[in-house]
Amino acid sequence: MELDLPEETLIIKDMVRKFVERELIPLEERLKDRKNSYDLPDRIKSDLENKVKNIGLWAMDAPKEIGGAGLNLLDHCVVIEEAFKATVGRCLWSSLFFPVLYKLGNDKQKEKYLNPSVNGFFHGAAAYSEPNAAGDLAGIQTSADQVKGGWIINGNKCWISHALTAKFFLVLTRVKGTKRHDGITWFIIDRETKGFSVGREQGMIHGQPTYELSLNECFVSNDQLLGKPNQGWVAGEEALFRGRLLVSARAIGIAQRCFDMMVKYSTERVTFDKPLSSRQAIQWMIADSATEIHASRLMLYHSAVKAQKKNKIHSELAMLKLFTSEMAGRVVDRAVQIHGAMGLSDETILERCYRDVRPMRIYEGSSEAMRSLVAKNIIKNV
Ligand SMILES: Cc1cc2nc3c(=O)[nH]c(=O)nc-3n(C[C@H](O)[C@H](O)[C@H](O)COP(=O)(O)OP(=O)(O)OC[C@H]3O[C@@H](n4cnc5c(N)ncnc54)[C@H](O)[C@@H]3O)c2cc1C
Fold this sequence. Notes:
Number of domains: 3
Helix content: 40-55%
CATH architecture of the largest domain: Up-down Bundle
Number of helices: 11
Distance between the termini: 26 Å
Strand content: 15-25%
CATH topology of the largest domain: Butyryl-CoA Dehydrogenase, subunit A, domain 3
Bound molecules: flavin-adenine dinucleotide
């Protein structure tokens, strides 16, 4: 396979790189007292969102007919990679497009929920994790019981991002009485629905909180069923696989920024009369990081091209997500080490990057789940 990026992709990459350098990185200094990458003041955020719309990269992955930029997977990954180099970029492009809603939703549902999200009028949240089943999603217990005119839903969800402001929730349930993958069914639940409530905030290491949800005898009409009962597993899995590409792009963007910082600092910082960059211990950290970022990028672009050709590459996506999320942890850690106390303090963005990459080894498929998927696919073919 030809691994050089297509000309059009390079143009997009360059445009986003310039946007990040011109508009986003200077804001890191101006908004230094932010505790995390996500708490951008509303006024600045909406100003930036307008600028993103002006360069045609709003709702990148959503099809053009519903107001998105309609980028293919490779271009989408490249934009995310560049955007995540800036801590400010990390809060700009999220939760606009819901592949599950696009795949399973009927025209009415798409018009009511998807189009306004993509256009930025309001947004939703995806709720699949539960206290007793999150990594093992086929074990969810939230039940959907069919009654006259609709469904009664009971259960608890946790770790739900964006729940504080979401207007609607895509909720993963199982038809009452079913087991494991068979009964999995999605519903769209409006925030104001009787019996539905957003509960306790669950603070997170990177500063973007998640929330508990409770569904208590929550009645929804048949209009809120997404797709058909018992058929939610495949659509959810597809969204998850796609998510693994994008998490990897984020990991590479953050790692690259920290790498650039470590190289620059190592040439400037003098200890025992010599710059750090003259020491072999430091050079090895630089060389290992450069090698791992390069390998990650090749894996990402290769997987993105194969995925957009609709190849089934579950194992490759698992390898990609495993390798890139762990790579980012190692690279950011080395950058912190080379910066010494400076790297641990809030004098640089490194401590924030450190917190931003740690959750990546847990969500969208933990490292252990990825290793297990890769190994099982190898062993079953022996
Ligand atoms: C920042 C953040 C945002 C999130 N946002 C959302 C959201 O918006 N919506 C949502 O629904 N969920 C969300 N989640 C939840 C996320 O999807 C789960 O945390 C994730 O799936 C892991 O589930 P768990 O935390 O229950 O870990 P568990 O599944 O309990 O696993 C715990 C540990 O044990 C390991 N493990 C589990 N089973 C095995 C096994 N068989 N063999 C070996 N090791 C194993 C895991 O790899 C992990 O390291 C979010 C999580 C985080 C951290």
